[in-house]
Amino acid sequence: MRVRTYFLVLLLLCSGWNLLSQSDLMLYNFNAIGQSLHTNPGMQQQSKFWLALPGLAGASFNYHNNGFALVDLLEEGSNVNENLEQVSRNLDGQSHLTLSGSLDLLGIGFKAGNGFVSMGSTVDIAYRMDLPGALMKVLFVDDNNNTLTNFSIDNFEFETVARTNLYLGYQHTFLDERLTVGARYKYIIGQAHSHFERARLSIENQSNFSAIINTDVLLQSSGRSLVEGDNLNDPGSLALTDNRGMAIDLGATYKLTERWELSASIIDLGSITWQQDVAQFKSDGTYEFDGVDVDLSNENTGSGFDDFADTLVEAFNFEETQGGNYTKSLMSQVFAGANFFVTPNHVFGALYHARIWNGTWYHDIGINYQGRLARDFQIIGGYSIINGVAHNIGAGLQAKLGPVQLFVLTENLVGAIAYQGLQTTNVRLGINIAFLGSND
Amino acid sequence: MIKRLLLALTSLLFLSCEKDIDFDLWKEIKIQPNGTIPLVNARLTLADLVTDGDTLLQIDPDDALRIYYRQDSIFSYGANKLVRIPDQDPEQITLSRVLPIVQVGKNLGTLGGAEIDSAEFFKGFLEYSIVSSAPVSNPIDIQFTLFNTDDGGTPFSRTITLAANETTALDSASVAQLFFDFTAGGTRTNFLDVQLAIQNISDLPSGVDLDVIFRLKSLEVQRAVGFFGEGAVVAPPGDFDLGISGLENFAGGFFLSNPTVTLTTISSAGLPVEVRSTFTGLNSAGSGVPLAPPNLVINAAPDVNTPTLSPFSVDNDNSNIVNFLANIPNQVFYRAQASLNPGGRPSTPNFVSRNSKVSVNFELDIPLELRLEQMTLDETIEDVQIGSVESPDFIEELTLFVRSENAIPVTMNMQVSFLDSTTGDSIGGVFLDFLQAAPVDANGQSNGTSVTESEIVLNDEQITALLKSNAIRFRAAVNTLNGGSERVKLYATDGLEVRMATQVRLNVNPESL
Questions:
Q1: Which of A17, A414, B332, B508 has the smallest number of CB atoms closer than 10 Å to its CB?
Q2: Which of residues 92-151 of A touch B (CB under 8 A)?
């Protein structure tokens, strides 16, 4: 009872930070809720039937910034400019910011013999970008290697996407229920997208009077016009675009012994072809910028800063083209875990998770405890290091009130309360209708 | 086990809460980028100045530059300016039954003491009227005759009729193409021989007087012979632009070698004229310098078909042309007055025809061989706002780099002053050695390039002045070699390239933006 009270308090504290939630590391092993299939379609389900209620089924929010926390900049009594300099120096090629959210529009899953069928729809919105360390060094670091005309950005990555997934999944058990293999097919309608296909920029002073600008930039976007004009009043045109894609999730769990269970999955193997309202901004070349060209024979020799700005813009030689299409792979995820069953209701697990964005792997590792404290009440708690950001204490619970299943999970409980040091968190909550099997 | 886990969790919570956040620190953020930024890459080839359609510069076959300007008929006097016959005063003659015919001699009124021997008019009218002292019952005809005219072989004669029961009659007749002999047989000038005669005297009642009033008016000469007097004729004043590309904004110190202006007079009038002209050139600073050319004496043309053409060279010996051009006039204002027959009555009579004209052409044609001595540029850029009250020191360091490659044989240095536009006072500034003169050969032609590199580090006071100022004044002085004492010759191929850059360290508080 005291434990329940404690977690209720934590839940309230969490709700003060985020009402939306998503979990990856916490959700993965939390097979009490059908949403765990989002992370591994081969994850055996406790329920024989679950229904994710439209609008209530689950929402999630994820924040990750491995570059700095708020306290790194604004600690009381500190010098904010020294903080900015230090943060800027610490940023590297792996430093990035992620904001994402998802919403379960509808979901349903049910047992069918030795199999389990699931189908539904989710909406995912994600914003990912490298933290612009080079630019921040220019602005905040007193260093001749980082000046307005002497710096480089090597493949700055940025992507934002909004998509709707229609999925159909199936898992089947083999070997006397020791092995479960599952797959999920996703038909994807993309609402909007933009990203840097390439973003390399360098400016280097050749002399006081000349700087060489090298650019190799291609920014692609789709769906910009959807949020313009009257489209905002037409949800149909916002949702049903011509941008289509597909993806496959694969997963399996294998019960090695009575105490040991292994699992793995790979999520979002696929891509979307963006073809509606496609715009591409390209800059590719080398340009010597030597100031505003002035013809001294012309009385009207220019209008100061406007000419300077125009000349600088011309130096980057951006070309905009409309139309065409491009295909962009999804950010795939890999999970691999091992669980140790102390008892059937008390399990300790270890989990590896990776996000693969534009060919770069971002690694997370964690350990967790899964407790089935009662038939209708389960908890999960864990510690994880997410993309190098340590000290993430995660927790989650699900409670059934009859067929109504409430759940909430978070990756960083401490961060939800002590936002000062928050660098990563995700929170997921929702309500399902769930019926457990007679043996569960 | 679970209790321990919860204890650890709780400890971490409190641990995390130890550091407080002060959101007001955002207000203290300062962006402090620095960099060396190319600002300007300016080029000039003197040939570029010639592409301007309004320029006075021309390129010779050997690429030498010259200033050329010509304006024809800057002053012009036509026949009717040279022979001035005004509208005549009305003459009145009274006729009656007692005095039915009158013949009188009248003088043609002229201006300037002109004494006309003969003339034919391109245009003109004889205007006349009859005023009766009482109505007449029958029409009265009066014949008007000018005996000293030739109207197709006979004297000009017109009949004026006073209608019955009327007391007035008004009419006019053209005298165009009518030849007048004003000499009275070689004894007089300006003489008019007029006769008025009642044709039907029996119809004029006794006691009725008829006043005949007549005059010549709107006379324009077709041809005239005589002595046209010694009066002065003023030409309409005017002005013309004399801006030279590249020099419009400079003033003073522009000394051309052997500068001359040619004033060419053309006269197709048989009349000597002396033209006294004034030319005043205003430069960009509004300063005026007179040319003060000599008076132009124009001889009489031998006949109407053989105009005299006399070029007058206005040079350093007979005018103020050196100072006039040194002032770099952008606009020239002129006016002139012509004195007719300046030597008195000539031995041969004056003559003009309708197409006769006395005019003066202005022509400036000077090779750009010169010396410049403190030729100045003084310009102020208003409404400059680099700094702001909220962020008075947003520039921490500022260095200005200037590099020039100069193939023009002139030097230029520049004083840049930061002004308080309210008071006009300079609150700081910098001095730039902008250009070093290119070397020249024995003919004064540039034969190399001089490179000047300057690095001006603005101190705190100068940066503060720059940020506080709201106007910047540029005062440049241009000299040829050796302080302006050496003459050089400018060629279209001469040019320069100036590069400017700044090394700046900013200190921007976003809160103040």
A1: B508
A2: 138-140, 142, 144, 147-150
